[in-house]
Amino acid sequence: MTRPLNSVERSIQGRNDWLKGEERKAIESRGEMGRMEFWLRVTRSRISKDVKAGRDDVIPGFTSVCRLFKLAVDKRAEGDARLWNHLMQYAQQVLEQHGPRN
């Protein structure tokens, strides 16, 4: 038997359910492009909140992630998909371990 969720756990579950629902709606309306745009909006909002909270290191962090992604895309376009494959494998592992919980 599982115990009832406390208020923090209910809040997290509600947020995760909202994210999943909004992502699903974005996919239904615009496909993978909609999914990407949804996550960019969510990320931009989170970056703004972090900056307002004094965590300015979020901007260079996001910049580095974007630069890494562009490098992987460029290398793949040049015929070397190793970095792309490693990046996608790592992203999948991290999301499985730390992504929104069911």
What does this structure look like?
By secondary structure, the chain is an all-alpha fold. 81% of the residues lie in helices and 0% in strands. It contains 3 helices and no strands. The longest helix is centred in the first third of the chain and has 46 residues. The radius of gyration is 17 Å and the shape is globular. The two termini are 18 Å apart.
Q: What is the fold's blueprint, element by element?
A:
Elements: H1 7-52, H2 58-77, H3 82-98
Helix pairs in contact: 2-3
Outline of the structure:
Helices cover 81% and strands 0% of the residues. The chain is an all-alpha fold. 0% of the residues are buried.
Q: Give the number of DSSP strands.
A: 0
Terminal CA distance: 18 Å
Strand and helix order: HHH
Largest sheet: none
* Computed CA radius of gyration, to the nearest angstrom: 17 Å
Strand composition percent:
under 5%
Average pLDDT? 92
Any descriptors?
single chain; 102 residues; mainly alpha
